[in-house]
Amino acid sequence: MQLGELRGVIALDGPSGTGKSTVARRLADALGAGYLDTGAMYRAVTLAVLRSGVATDDEEAVLSIAENVDLKVSTDPNHQETLLGGDNVGTEIRGQAVTLAVSAVSAVGGVRTLLVARQMRIIAQVCEERGGIVVEGRDIGTVVAPDAALKVYLTASADARALRRSLQDSASGRDVSVDDTRKDVNRRDQLDSGRAVSPMQPADDAVWLDTTDLDLQGVLDEIMVLVDERDLRGVAAGW
């Protein structure tokens, strides 16, 4: 695997609809770095739970599924796959059923411990192979990669986030109104920020970036400035 420009870890955190996934993939591609979507891992476990028929509030059963699930995620920003039992479930894990259940599953302490450990191993491996990785989620800067060379917490207004999510759903063939999406976004925020284990919150040393009035290139430009301020391109950087 070819060594890229980035040295170390960039942690992108923030709630749904702030543009994390698109920004993280484009950033990783621009820097020749690896990419990890931690949310896809929680969504895949959630899909496995739903397929099994286990209640999402049965923590013991949910953890058992998480411990035994055959889950693989791609770290190539240009070729994203989430494999469950060998099948690519990248589209299915973005569906409404998983979206409604993923906060409950990801709140199970044992599931988070299991997946965080796996995420840390992936990050270490990709950094060894490519030099750096862009990781996105809700607890990257605080839990998964607390020593990341750069931590960015993306925010946006509730209206902007709801509109973006609605456009994403429409592009994927899901017919959801902006009002319904706004309610879902608010529900996810409350659940994710209020859970007992690894709640969604910015790291103390994270740089806040409001994306409400920025397009994709504008967000990338802002983050690239931070990357260069920290000399993370082409030089060794601890994480």
From TrEMBL:
Organism: Actinophytocola algeriensis
Protein name: Cytidylate kinase
Amino acids binding ATP: 14-22
Coiled-coil region: none
GO molecular function: ATP binding; dCMP kinase activity
CDD domains in UniProt: CMPK
EC number: 2.7.4.25
Recorded family membership: Belongs to the cytidylate kinase family. Type 1 subfamily.
Keyword tags: ATP-binding, Cytoplasm, Kinase, Nucleotide-binding, Transferase
Subcellular location: Cytoplasm
